[in-house]
Amino acid sequence: MSHLIAPSLLAADFSNLIKDIEMLNQSDADWFHIDIMDGVFVPNISFGFPVMEAINRHTLKPMDVHLMIVDPDRYISNFKKAGANILTVHLEACNHLHRTIQAIKAEGMSAGVSLNPHSAVNDLEDIITDIDLVLIMSVNPGYGGQSFIENTYRKVERTKTLIERTGSKAKIEVDGGVTLKNAGKLIDAGADVLVAGSSIFKSEDPAETITQLKNL
Ligand code: DX5
Ligand code: ZN
Fold this sequence. Notes:
Blueprint: E1 4-7, H1 17-26, E2 32-37, H2 49-58, E3 63-68, H3 76-81, E4 86-90, H4 97-106, E5 110-115, E6 133-137, H5 152-166, E7 171-175, H6 183-189, E8 193-196, H7 198-201, H8 206-214
Parallel strand pairs: 1-8, 2-3, 3-4, 4-5, 5-6, 6-7, 7-8
The structure holds D-xylitol-5-phosphate and zinc ion.
Zinc ion (ZN) binds near residues 8, 33 and 35.
């Protein structure tokens, strides 16, 4: 499988969101990456259901929703209603991760688990065959535009090894500080999905940057 590109709307122009949504629809982007922050799990607040529903009315591509919130179980059906196709929760935010994953799947969504930079890949050992996606954070979550943490390559490799050993079908997604400079090495390490915010939307020609990321 060729790798997928999931541009993060966090770096889009919120005063003219429709322009960026249409650009993504016409581009080589595979998924829309939607970052939901609650100001508690992470020190920032992004946006909520009304904005997500508005994006959903116009997107022609799957919505890959990354929850950086505490107690995500409270909102699983709301995210389904708002259009999420893939719903990813943080390992660090879930006391009963297995139950949370089952609840996401029961709503008909694909289920992902995200790891903060300090969390060990080994902690996925007993959940890896139940999930569709592992989202490796390559920055500390909360803000776009941060610099990439180099240890991520090794973490992606370890995740790939775990997936192969267990026969899991999970995809590996990397999120934070992804650019044209590090994307190739991430794919070589085993990444299946690359999230990129600033390196796409702050570039001169965002659609062309997506094409370049896709063609690596
Ligand atoms: C960070 C978010 C990321 C972020 C990526 O907490 O989860 O998805 O928007 O943005 P860049 O690519 O600018 O690091
Ligand atoms: Zn994200």
